C-alpha cells in the first residue's frame, strides 16, 4: 500500500521503535511507516488502517507492537475474531495485561457476553491500572446489557470512580455509559442528570453527551441557512413541542 511522502517512520512511539531494532534497518523503517499509517487512519478510516496493519504483520509478525497494532485495526473494523487473536498473541509475547479489557470487548463483539463477564471477574483485572479497571467495568456493563440485564448493568457502573467529582480521562465515558443505561431502564430524570455530568467532564468531545442531553430537553438544532440564506447561515435552536 502507498505510503505518503511525509511519513518517515520516526513518528512512532520510542518504545515501539526500540522493539523494531531487532529487525534489519530497512525492514524496520518499512514496518514503522506502516504502523504510522495505522495510527493515522484508525479513527477516520478503519479499513484503511486495517490494510496497513496487514502489511506490517506480513513484514514483522514476531514483533509484539505489530500484533497489537493489527489487533486494534481489526477491532476498529469490527473483525473481532482477528482482533482477539492478535491481542492474545501480543499478550503472550509481552506478558502485559493492559489489553485484557479490549480482549473482553472482543468477546462481546463475537456474541459471547458471558465470556466477557468471566474475564471481568478474572484475577488479571486486579493487575490493571485504574484506567484499565474502569475500562473493564464499562465492558462488563455492556455485557450485562447485551444479556438484557439492565439493572445489573447500572449496578456494575456504580463505583467510587463514578461518584468522584474529580475529572479523569475516563470520567466522561463512565458517566455517559451510566446515563445511557439509566435511560434504557426508563429512568429518564436520572439519565438527564448524568448526561449533564458527562457533558461537564467531556472536555475533548469524546462522547455525544451534549446531543443526548439536548434531545432529552426537547431541543433540536435547525440550519438557519436552509431557511434563510440571508442571515449568515448560523444554526438556531428550537424547542420541540
Overall helicity? 55-70%
Strand content: under 5%
Output the strand order for the largest sheet.
Answer: 1-2
Overall residue-averaged pLDDT value: 91
Number of strands: 2
Order of helices and strands: HHHHHHHHHHHHHEHE
Number of helices: 14
- How much is the radius of gyration in Å? 21 Å
Distance between the termini: 53 Å
**What is the chains' assembly state?**
single chain
Cα shape: globular
Sheet/helix structural class: mainly alpha
Residue stretches low in confidence (pLDDT < 50, at least 5 long) are: 229-237
Largest sheet: number of strands, sense, barrel closure: 2 strands, antiparallel
Summarize it.
This protein has 14 helices and 2 strands; from the N terminus they run αααααααααααααβαβ. With 241 residues, the protein is mainly alpha-helical.
Task: Pick out its properties.
4% strand; 241 residues; 2 strands; mainly alpha; globular; 14 helices; two-stranded antiparallel sheet
Amino acid at each position: 500500500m502507498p505510503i505518503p511522502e511525509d511519513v518517515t517512520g520516526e513518528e512512532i512511539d520510542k518504545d515501539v521503535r526500540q522493539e523494531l531494532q531487532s529487525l534489519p534497518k530497512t525492514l524496520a523503517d518499512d514496518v514503522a511507516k506502516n504502523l504510522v499509517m495505522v495510527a493515522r487512519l484508525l479513527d477516520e478510516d478503519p479499513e484503511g488502517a486495517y490494510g496497513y496493519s496487514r502489511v506490517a504483520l506480513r513484514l514483522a509478525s514476531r514483533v509484539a507492537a505489530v500484533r497489537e497494532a493489527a489487533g486494534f485495526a481489526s477491532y476498529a473494523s469490527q473483525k473481532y475474531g482477528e482482533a482477539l487473536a492478535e491481542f492474545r498473541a501480543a499478550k503472550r509475547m509481552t506478558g502485559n495485561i493492559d489489553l485484557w479489557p479490549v480482549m473482553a470487548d472482543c468477546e462481546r463483539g463475537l456474541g459471547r457476553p458471558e465470556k466477557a463477564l468471566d474475564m471481568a471477574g478474572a484475577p488479571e483485572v486486579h493487575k490493571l491500572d485504574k484506567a484499565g479497571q474502569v475500562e473493564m467495568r464499562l465492558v462488563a456493563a455492556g455485557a450485562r446489557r447485551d444479556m438484557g440485564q439492565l439493572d445489573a448493568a447500572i449496578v456494575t457502573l456504580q463505583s467510587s470512580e463514578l461518584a468522584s467529582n474529580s475529572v479523569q480521562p475516563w470520567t466522561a465515558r463512565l458517566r455517559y455509559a451510566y446515563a445511557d443505561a439509566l435511560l434504557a431502564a426508563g429512568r429518564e430524570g436520572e439519565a438527564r442528570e448524568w448526561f449533564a455530568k458527562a457533558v461537564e467532564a467531556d472536555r475533548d468531545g469524546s462522547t455525544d453527551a451534549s446531543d443526548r442531553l439536548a434531545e432529552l430537553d426537547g431541543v433540536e438544532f435547525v440550519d438557519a441557512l436552509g431557511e434563510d440564506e440571508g442571515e449568515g447561515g448560523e444554526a438556531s435552536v428550537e424547542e420541540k413541542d
